[in-house]
Amino acid sequence: MLNIINSGLRLKLVLLVVAGIVFAFTVIGAFRVHTEKQRITEEMRRSGQERVAMISEAVANLLVGYDYSNMESLAERIVQQQDVQHVIIRNRDDKVMVSRNKPSLPDQATLSFGSPVVFSSEQIGKVDLQISLARMEAEIYRTYREVILEQAFFGLFLGLLIYFGASRVIVKPIAQISEHMKNIINSNDASLPEALDIRNSDEIGDLARIFNNLNQKVFEAQQRLREKIDLAGSALMKTNDQLQQRSQELENRTQDLEKALTLLEKLAVTDSLTDLRNRRYFDDNLAATFARAQRFNEPICLILLDVDFFKQINDTYGHAAGDTVLQALARAFKSRTRETDISARLGGDEFAFLLYRTQREEGILFGTSLLAMLRGMPFKFHDHEVTVGLSIGVACNRDDIHSIEALYGAADEALYEAKRRGRNQVVAHPFDSQPHVKLKSV
């Protein structure tokens, strides 16, 4: 596994070395081929010049004697030589006396030589000779092949040598360092990792020693960090406990505050004695209900009432008796009203009802039911029976009532009309032709 992982580095080293060897051998081979080509060319030129000179000496006597038969025989023997491609013998007038050719390939390269034919110090003709370069090309091909074989052999030999040498001296220690680092990364052990056992005196050995020192310092830093984390964790847990305690205290105080606010809101709109809505709440809701009724053309009914001769009750039995009467009436009123209706204590012994979607006749019927309810309610205080009566005024939002003030005034007039008519009765506005409703108290 380790060899597979690090084969890339070895392969790179081998490829670099082989590339260098190939480049060097290519340069050397090119130089060798060039030198060999020059040597062979020079040798062929020298050989060709010598041969054409020998032919010109041999043909001199034949040319003087016009011995065509022997000249043709000589030319035939010359052209049969392996590298001779063409031979021509000319006289002094440059007339071709003998010409012999050897069949050749179209692209075959040749060298041409010429030599004068001299007899008795006088030029009597000329010999032209063409020699094929096939031998030179064969020599060059052989040189190419030798260079390629040498490159392949020495490249393979040096590549293997460097591969095993680099693997042993360079790659193996680096692979050990890499594997050791991976083991440290994948390890969950909090103890100090084992040090690298690389004792080279070169840069790799220095790298291993630096790594061991760095690993030691990292381990020490981790230990200090763990200690700080433990301390911070303890402090955080303590702080968290304190925050939870403070949060619980804050939540308790918030609940207490919400309860207090709820109580304050209730007290702001509730009468403390009777637990009915107070005048402030009643007036605010009367304005909203009246506006909604006007917008949607819905009937509403306002009922005002107070307790008959309430001052006498207080004077005769005391204010505690009066408070008891008011509380009993408030409980009774709550039982008679709907969730959409509003019952309130306006102050003293005065009460008010706001009945939503209620016609005038239904308002009169509601007031009458309150009077009937009093007949079945005994009022006693310290074994004294207290007689209680109610004067009730009813007003609805009729065509002649277009404001809250008018509605309130109409209900108030009806209330005082009930008092003028003898109390303990219901009077509705308008009341000029209305027979009053009166119930006798028991």
How would you characterize this protein structure?
There is one protein chain. The two termini are 113 Å apart. By secondary structure, the chain is α+β, with helices and mostly antiparallel strands. The chain has 3 domains: 154 residues, Beta-Lactamase (2-Layer Sandwich), CATH 3.30.450; 82 residues; 160 residues, Alpha-Beta Plaits, CATH 3.30.70.270. The protein is rod-shaped. The model has no long low-confidence stretch (mean pLDDT 81). The strands form 3 sheets. The chain has a 6-stranded mixed sheet, with helices on both faces. It is built from 10 helices and 12 strands. 21% of the residues are buried.
Topology, element by element:
Layout: H1 2-5, H2 7-64, H3 68-79, E1 84-91, E2 96-101, E3 110-119, E4 122-132, H4 134-186, H5 203-269, H6 279-296, E5 300-307, H7 310-317, H8 319-336, E6 342-347, E7 350-356, H9 360-375, E8 379-381, E9 384-386, E10 390-396, H10 404-420, E11 425-428, E12 437-438
Parallel strand pairs: 10-11
Antiparallel strand pairs: 1-2, 1-4, 3-4, 5-7, 5-10, 6-7, 8-9, 11-12
Helix pairs in contact: 2-4, 4-5, 7-8
Please outline what is shown here.
With 442 residues, this protein is an alpha+beta fold. The protein has helices spanning 2-5, 7-64, 68-79, 134-186, 203-269, 279-296, 310-317, 319-336, 360-375, 404-420; strands at 84-91, 96-101, 110-119, 122-132, 300-307, 342-347, 350-356, 379-381, 384-386, 390-396, 425-428, 437-438. It contains 10 helices and 12 strands.
